[in-house]
Every structure is written in C-alpha cells, then in structure tokens.
Amino acid sequence: MAAKLKVDQIESVDGSANVTLNNSITMASGKTLPAASLTGTVPTASLGTGTAGSGNFLRGDGSWQAAGSTSASDLTSGTLPMARLSGTLPALNGSALTNLPGGGKILQVVETETSTAKSVGGNTYTGTNLLGSITPSATSSRILVMVNQSIVMRTDTTDDREVFLELRRGSTVILTNKFPAKGESGNRHYDSGFSGSKVDSPNTTSSVTYETFFKIDGSSADGLAQFDGGTSTLILMEIGA
What we know:
The protein contains no helices and 14 strands. It is mainly β. The chain has a domain at 110-239: Jelly Rolls, CATH 2.60.120.760. The strands form 4 sheets. A 4-stranded antiparallel beta sheet has the order 3-14-6-11, with no helix packed on it. A 4-stranded antiparallel beta sheet has the order 4-13-7-10, with no helix packed on it. A 4-stranded antiparallel beta sheet has the order 5-12-8-9, with no helix packed on it. A hairpin with a 5-residue loop joins strand 1 and strand 2. The protein is rod-shaped.
C-alpha cells in the first residue's frame, strides 16, 4: 500500500525558501494547485506527445505537430482574407494571366463619316458615299456594324413612294430596310434617316468593306443622302470569338 502524508503546508526549516520536489506529484481528483504557487518551466515532454521544436506547435489534441508554411509562394488554393492585405499591391503583368475566359473582347474599332451628298432617282441601287473597311485579326472574329445613315426623300407625285436601303459587305447584302412616303402633289421632302446595327461574321483576315446603298421604287421622286450638309457615320468593331 502506498504511503500517505496529509499536511496543510510544507515549508523550509526557516520558512523563507521554496521546497523542491524531486519526484512527480499526482493530484487527487477535483483538487487544484494555485498557479501563483508554481514557478520554473514545465518540460515540453510533459505538455504533449511527439517532439517539440521551433517549427512545431502544440495542437488541441495534446500532440506536437509541424506548423504549415506562411510563405505567399506556397499559397495554391483557398481565399486570402482582405485583412491580410495591406500597403500597395504590385502591378500585374498581363502576360502572366492565363486560362482567362475568351470571347467578347473588342479588338479594334474603325469609324468613318461622310457629308458628301448623293442622290438617286431610279430603281437601281446606288452607293450613298458611306463606306468603311476593317481587317479582322482572326477568321473567328465577328464585326459589329453600326450605321447612322442620313437620307431624305423628295417627291413630286400623288403616288406613294418608298426608299430602300441596303448594307453590304462587299457584294453581299447583310441588312435591308425601307421607308415609305405618302404621295402628295408639289415638291415634298420626307426625312427617312436610318440608324441600325448588324453583327456580321466575315470569316476572313483580309480587309472587308461595308457600304450602304439606296434606291427609289418609282418616278417623280428622289432619294438624297447627306442632304443639305447632313452627316452619316459608320462604326466597325471587331469582337474576339
């Protein structure tokens, strides 16, 4: 049977020094030792299992574990809290950005305008003097064509008339429209301007030209593009695939 010693206090002979215990003490269940009575250093081996070291930490399960890296170069996943970012971030080199989603980027813009007047008086399509060219950088690119065409129709007949407009890429018609004018006697002017857009796929890296054409469907009427100093504009935008 183990020996027992029951005392209220343990002091040195003169009561002025600490008492040194060379062996371990096991506290009874529910008993505590005041922290103020403890001095010195607890051996790391008594704190947890495993090996303590400068690169280890004591985990909640009572074991010594290697600490993870805190170097930014070792971050490969996860989210870095905003609170961790301070100061001025370095400039990003666009060449280092990879695997970005493609498509929808505007690669180039060409704008042209004209105030040169042009008239048509018959049923044959005639150029309006509004045209522009663009050279796509890839066959997969699309071209957004935006047109603001100034047109006035002048009539001198009681019959109704219409002016027809075409937008062409080369000889290929990609957009059409028409504007009616009510027939009245006398020299009448009707504003038939057109604003519109079209997304085209030329499928080439060669220069392509877009141009507007117009005509009148009968006699005693004229179509007037850029009438009286009016300005027409054409904007071509290459959009990456």
